[in-house]
Design goal:
Largest sheet: 20 strands, antiparallel
Helix content: 10-25%
Distance between the termini: 94 Å
Organism: Pontibacter cellulosilyticus
Strand content: 35-45%
Structural class: alpha+beta
Keywords: Membrane, Transmembrane, Transmembrane helix
Protein name: DUF3352 domain-containing protein
Number of strands: 54
């Protein structure tokens, strides 16, 4: 009996122990786990979703899925998922398993070289457990996978390898959750985090924030700004990282809602300020966000914009102005000048057309007292230049005065180290803004853009984008991925540049991007916008639509000449018929003025603003005359100029040195003689004639460098001259390229003659770059397949800010970019020389027109060399192409026999 009691007692203890153990195991398995607490603190991003199927369906409906599917990473992910689906049990697919549950995905930098993901997935039911168990069993049996298990700090880790793709992932289960990643290092870190006990959520400050409860929200997105530089450091070169780290220190972390619309991605929410000492937030201590008034002055070719909206701009200075070698002689003046700026300051990087060139940088700073600012600038210049006994450099450009301040890194001394990179500063006052650039040519170009209203505030596409962003902010970063393509490429690491190229389609598709922060007191309201511009023009097929056919009584003998209407600046066309009559066709397709010239015109038609009302006038040359007419086709006073009956004019160039309507008219004849006149018909000394040794290869080009006017003359025999206003040759010239020239030059204007670079290509493909001191800087030979191959340099026809090089050889035409990379090559019917034209409207909005004069066919190509519309146009002369920015379609004018046609089309790259 006692033995039986002992036996029963032992049995009871064993059963109780088993029951207690089983109860605790059941309790542990049922215990709710905060997935956020499992995420390592080094996560840069965490994404939480709760409706997988709805998200995928919305991506598909809005065409966003098509955009993301172009990514190589997405395609690799789909390949892996296809293999997993192949071993999934029955009809239960992964979509059903993933749907209707809160799933976390954290993103980390591993080993300072890679980005890896961790997925945290709840297993909510017995059925899901059964599905996972069967799936893992099938994986272990499949020939596609290999599975290994190992213990790590008491946790069973499973390593799965896809033998076909060579990919692998590691996973473990914890309290009815499965954690998996391609990185075993991250998985082990999560195990250690759990083992230590009571981990704190990385998003603890946003514990009560859950945007998933709101309609049309597809994810919570957590951002760890302290880890953001590590992510960006994988892609950007080290010389950019100090600025990246500083800007990232505006905030510590953020929780944002993800919304998706047609061709748009929105992230909105709040960011916690970074309170560490010397952080961006601590330095600026923002009070009230400011509007972006500078939009009315930003050129449409802006690639990247950093905008700071602060009541006192001087807060941007992270440390006092550095003392100069001369002591603090003008340090106090700089400090006083810094106090004048308020409300906003912006740093803009302009679009670049080559990876090898530094992008133009322009600083826009709002002034509260313009008179005070100008007085301090004058004082600063006097203090800098007086010891050197130098006079300040100024130049008039239109109604503006550009000044040079020889203080190295002046913007950085005024606004902080984010504004470095200015060896010297050229400044100009435009309304309530002082604008800085280290290149005077950049300021001239910007003033031209403002005058022509090619600015954000007047751009239909850009205004539409800005309306979807915060109207007031303390810090904004705007990025146009298409305009910034070469800028991004230049500052990317060599490894990441390849990824950039592979993902070009998606990156350029969402070309309008903004990141904004607006102070709300204790937090920053944060808004990120990714927008695909011109959605209506990005799908469908290329299409030609003839909008106008204007028939003439006689054959049209000229190409169409592009002009602007003298009153409303609308785009018009002029043609000349075989009776030598110039005929104007208005933007509405009606005939305007006409002018019987009596002979064919040479070159093109120039337009100038002239007279008390600054109306547009038209200048052109015939064989021995220079003509100027108004918008009624009537000759201006003193015109035409009769140069000489024996003269045979080749080109007409028009210069306005000071942009004050004191024009110079320069012509050359077929003997290489140059003649210059003012607008009143007076001959200019030194140009009657200025004899050259040979005929000119192209129209003379004028530029202003460091207060000097330079007229660049290229001769067909390969000699290049740089002349001053009196026709005298600059030292170092002429340059003998020892090879014929058949095209013009591309000029990259610098601060002085030494820094101004000129690029030309000889007929036989030698690309030479020299400066205006006559020093040859570089010479490179393009491949020349045969002796019949010849080359031309073609600036873009609409504004000349970029160029291409064209090689023609035995019926083939090859296009090279500014970095001498072959873009595409095409073969044509005949071997005769082709008329090649290049139109660039910013970013990837490029059109190449190739015309065969024999078959009378014109081919239009996109930036990728795709034939527009898969068809050709009947034509034998150069064409004119305009772009409608609002609709992103194009208008082409061409002439054929007795007809002028206006044709609209669009591009699908």
């Amino acid at each position: 009996m006692p033995k039986r009691i002992v036996f029963y007692f032992i049995g009871f203890v064993v059963l109780a122990s088993l029951a207690y153990y089983g109860f605790n195991r059941w309790k542990d398995s049922r215990e709710k786990v905060d997935l956020w607490a499992m995420v390592p603190e080094n996560a840069a991003f965490v994404v939480e979703t709760n409706n997988h199927l709805a998200l995928v369906e919305h991506l598909r409906e809005t065409n966003l899925l098509e955009s993301f599917s172009a990514l190589a990473a997405y395609q690799r992910f789909e390949e892996n998922m296809a293999y997993l689906d192949s071993v999934s049990p029955g009809t239960q697919r992964r979509e059903r398993f993933l749907d209707k549950k809160n799933i976390l995905t954290s993103i980390h930098v591993v080993g300072k070289t890679d980005v890896e993901f961790v997925h945290y997935i709840p297993v909510n039911s017995v059925g899901e457990h059964r599905f996972l168990r069967t799936l893992t069993e099938n994986i272990s049996k499949s020939e596609f996978f290999e599975q290994d298990s190992r213990q790590y700090q008491g946790t069973l880790l499973n390593d799965i390898t896809n033998t076909r793709l060579g990919t692998s992932f590691t996973y473990f289960t914890y309290h009815n959750n499965i954690i998996l990643s391609r990185s075993p290092v991250l998985v082990e870190e999560i195990v250690r985090r759990i083992t230590r006990g009571n981990p704190t959520s990385v998003a603890a400050k946003f514990k009560s924030t859950n945007y998933l409860n709101q309609p049309e929200v597809y994810a919570n997105v957590f951002i760890n700004y302290r880890e953001l530089p590590n992510v960006l450091g994988l892609f950007l070169k080290e010389d950019l990282m100090p600025q990246v780290r500083y800007l990232s220190s505006l905030s510590e972390s953020a929780m944002l809602e993800l919304k998706l619309e047609q061709d748009k991605i929105f992230l909105n929410g709040f960011s916690e300020p970074e309170t560490l000492k010397n952080s961006f937030h601590s330095n600026i201590a923002p009070v009230k966000p400011q509007p972006m008034g500078v939009k009315n002055y930003l050129p449409n070719r802006t690639a990247v914009l950093l905008h700071f909206g602060l009541d006192k701009v001087v807060k941007l200075k992270r440390q006092p102005a550095q003392k100069e070698a001369a002591g603090s002689a003008y340090g106090a003046t700089i400090d006083s000048l810094a106090q004048v700026f308020n409300n906003e300051v912006a740093l803009a990087y302009m679009e670049s057309n080559t990876i090898n060139a530094s992008p133009e940088k322009v600083v826009f700073a709002h002034v509260g007292n313009a008179a005070r600012a100008q007085s301090l600038i004058k004082q600063l210049n006097q203090k800098v230049l007086s010891p050197r006994k130098k006079k300040p450099y100024t130049e008039k450009y239109g109604g503006y005065t550009i000044e040079m301040i020889e203080v190295p890194e002046l913007p950085a001394k005024l606004f902080g180290s984010l504004f470095t990179g200015f060896e010297q500063s050229y400044v100009v006052e435009v309304d309530d803004y002082i604008i800085f650039s280290d290149e005077v040519a950049a300021l001239r170009d910007m003033l031209d853009d403002i005058s022509a209203e090619n600015v954000w505030g007047k751009s239909v596409a850009q205004k539409g984008f800005i309306e979807e962003t915060l109207q007031e902010a303390n810090f904004s970063l705007y990025l146009n991925t298409v305009n910034a393509w070469y800028v991004l490429s230049r500052y990317m690491t060599d490894n990441s540049r390849e990824d950039l190229l592979q993902n070009a389609t998606l990156i350029k598709r969402f070309n309008q991007v903004s990141f904004q922060f607006a102070n709300t007191g204790k937090q920053y309201y944060t808004s990120f916008v990714f927008r695909k511009q011109d959605r209506s023009a990005t799908s469908g097929e290329d299409l030609f639509v003839t909008e106008l056919t204007e028939k003439f009584d006689t054959r049209i003998s000229s190409k169409p000449f592009p002009i602007q209407n003298a009153v409303d600046r609308s785009r018009e066309i002029v043609v000349q018929d075989s009776a030598d009559v110039l005929i104007n066709i208005t933007a509405t397709g009606k005939r305007g003025w006409a002018d019987t010239v009596g002979t064919s015109i040479r070159g093109g038609i120039k337009q100038i603003e002239f007279g008390p009302e600054n109306k547009l006038r038209y200048l052109f040359a015939t064989g021995s005359r220079i003509h100027a007419i108004n918008n009624q086709g009537q000759s201006l006073e003193n015109f035409p100029f009769n140069i000489g009956d024996t003269l045979n004019i080749q080109h007409l160039a028009v210069f306005d040195y000071e942009k004050n309507q004191d024009y110079r008219l320069l012509i050359d004849d077929n003997l290489g003689n140059l003649y210059m006149y003012d607008i009143r018909g007076n001959a200019i000394e030194g140009w009657q004639p200025r004899r050259m040794d040979y005929r000119l290869a192209t129209e003379p080009q004028h530029l202003r460098v460091g207060g000097r006017d330079v007229i660049l003359v290229l001769l067909e025999n390969g000699y290049v001259y740089a002349l001053n206003k009196r026709g005298e040759t600059y030292p170092g010239f002429p340059i003998n390229l020892k090879s014929p020239l058949t095209s013009g030059a591309f000029i990259n204007a610098g601060a002085d003659l030494r820094k101004t670079e000129v690029t030309v290509v000889t007929k036989y493909g030698s690309v030479a770059t020299f400066n205006l001191q006559g020093k040859l800087l570089n010479r490179e030979q393009l491949e020349r397949p045969s002796k019949g191959a010849f080359f031309n340099l073609l600036p873009e026809e609409n504004n000349g800010k970029s160029y291409i090089i064209v090689r023609q050889e035995q019926g083939r035409v090859a296009i090279f970019d500014q970095d001498l990379n072959l873009q595409f090559e095409k073969r044509y019917v005949t071997s005769a020389p082709k008329i090649v034209q290049y139109f660039h409207f910013g970013g990837d909005n490029k059109v190449y027109a190739v015309t065969e004069t024999g078959p009378q066919k014109t081919y239009l190509y996109t930036s990728k060399g795709k034939l527009v519309g898969n068809t050709t146009l009947e034509n034998s002369k150069p064409v004119v192409i305009y772009r409608n920015e609002a609709t992103n379609d194009y208008t082409l004018y061409k002439v054929f026999r007795k007809e002028l046609q206006k044709i609209s089309f669009r591009l699908v790259n």
